[in-house]
Amino acid sequence: TTAPKPKRSTEDAEVGGVRISHPTRIVFPGTGDTKVDLARYYEQVADWLVPQLKDRPLTLVRCPQGAAHACFFQKHLTDTMPEGVQPVEIKDESGSATYMLANDVRAVIQLVQSGVLELHTWGATQRALEQPDRMIFDLDPAPDVSWQQVVEAAQLLRGLLQEAGLGVFLKTTGGKGLHVEVPLKPGADWDTVKAFSKAVATHLAQQLPDRFIATMSKAKRNGKIFIDYLRNARGATAVAAYSTRARDQAGVATPIAWDELPTLASASFWTIHNVPERLAAMKHNPWADYDKARVKLGPKIVQKFGI
Ligand code: ATP
Ligand code: MN
Ligand code: MN
User: Which N-terminal stretch is annotated as signal sequence (predicted)?
Assistant: First the structure.
């Protein structure tokens, strides 16, 4: 006799007081994780994630049918968004638009309920939208670049930034590459931060042209790592630490310590399955000193790269 098939519940579930519809819908086909699994992941990591989101305008990746189906980016608040998401009015090309903030765990779980699989944030907070409080170097390896090369690239970039007197932090993207982050004291404007990050990327590409490229051109990227400094433009976003990725294997963008990097297997090693355990067992938060390390990107530093 064959065992009866487990009943596929069509009933709603509840996580953190938020109703989850289609709880058994598979959102990550590679792992079989469902919508309610995802909501529970976010409930578990809320204390780590929420500070990363707080007061930062969002761009969301929504995939109503899961990571295997169509996804779209959304940056404006629409009336289909859950009520826990807060509005923030921002001036843009069109005059002004309403952007979104997710400032608590309830908002995050409500976003999961609305089909969100990725949370991306501005590098500035609502308090000072024109003065970034972080600079991001997004290391994008061409498909033929080895993981070892990506690791070395991050280490080289770190050295250069440290030499300029900056604090340098690291996260996996849950995808292919790494994000190297520099916490800033708000002060410099977007144009300055973007120009500085471009100068750093260009410098590395000139010094080590076999390894790095600082221009978008896909054609010239073979074998190289594109140092994507364009995350530092006003209105650009980068995936938030502890956000999931809309990819097959339920990868999570994960802060790591520099001494973890040499033994890390890949940018997608950390997932919704091992991140909660990692956090529970962690003795030292790799980003514990992130706020302490903030530096103002003033003339002295900026001049080192000829800006
Ligand atoms: P990977 O390590 O695989 O490169 P990533 O998050 O760095 O992962 P990228 O493709 O390099 O992915 O993109 C960097 C960031 O640019 C994303 O995290 C996202 O915030 C932003 N981004 C990319 N494409 C879009 C888009 N179409 N609309 C809005 N933001 C985007
Ligand atoms: Mn990238
Ligand atoms: Mn990129």
Answer: none
